[in-house]
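seq as requested:
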Amino acid sequence: MDALKPAEDFSRDEVRRILKIHERSLRSWEDHELVAERLRFGFNDLAILRTLKRLRESRIPPQRIKVSLVALKERIGVQEPLAELRLWPQGRQVAVDLPTGKMNALTGQLLLDFDREAPKDERVQTFAQPEPPEATRTADAESWFQRGLEIEEAEGPPDEAAAAYAQAIELNPRAAGAWVNLGTLHYRSGDLADAEDHYRRAIEITPAYALAHFNLGNVCEERGRLEDAAECYERALDLHPGYADAHYNVALVYERLGEPMRAAKHWRSYLKLDPTSPWAGIARQQLDSLVEVKRGGGETSH
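struct tokens:
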């Protein structure tokens, strides 16, 4: 008889096979910081990944899942909503099971639950007690943030999405996600100064926000501040070592800075993380050219 598996004895391949998910899905969840990057998984991790799979199969965007988890942490006081709560798709929203019924994880609104076996005339909507003004503003800010996401997902007018994010920031100045998304709209429009200001504000609010550091690196690179860009990308990688795009971008920056050894290190990391992407061919070419230069100089690439 085979011995029982220890608590953390599932490889990435085993997890993908058990849950029937692709590596790109798992990597996307890690990139969006929904789960921690790891090589071995335990039973609790399988339950978390199964919940994420259920939410994504309902086409709930990763960013919406992320802000819903943040809202649950603040509203209910849990540290790990995916592990501690039962989350379900409700349309394209995240719902959470509570003793009093289902609640919209993002807005806090209680939802009708027609799956319960109560008599039809008892299936009435229950309203939460009035929230304090600050909590109400936070919930309204989250709704505006969600509205901005919906506009962008539908490829709607950028100015409408920007207005939604600006309203979210007005209601909750500490809404780091809204600062980042509004900054990205400025970046796409060519307003690099405003984009940088917004990304820096997001980092002030949430210093461990890897995406904000990465985006700030993009701005610094566009503005010709290559050392600053490299520092931003490296900070993003400190926070999220599996951030493939950050490895790619910082490798290019190090080549421009004349630091081939550092560039080669990040090209290798990128190829380990994303060997089949459309950009992998470029990464291989860049790495091969660096190795060839080193060989021509009589040195060995490490």
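Confidence is low (pLDDT under 50) at residues 1-6, 114-132, 298-302.
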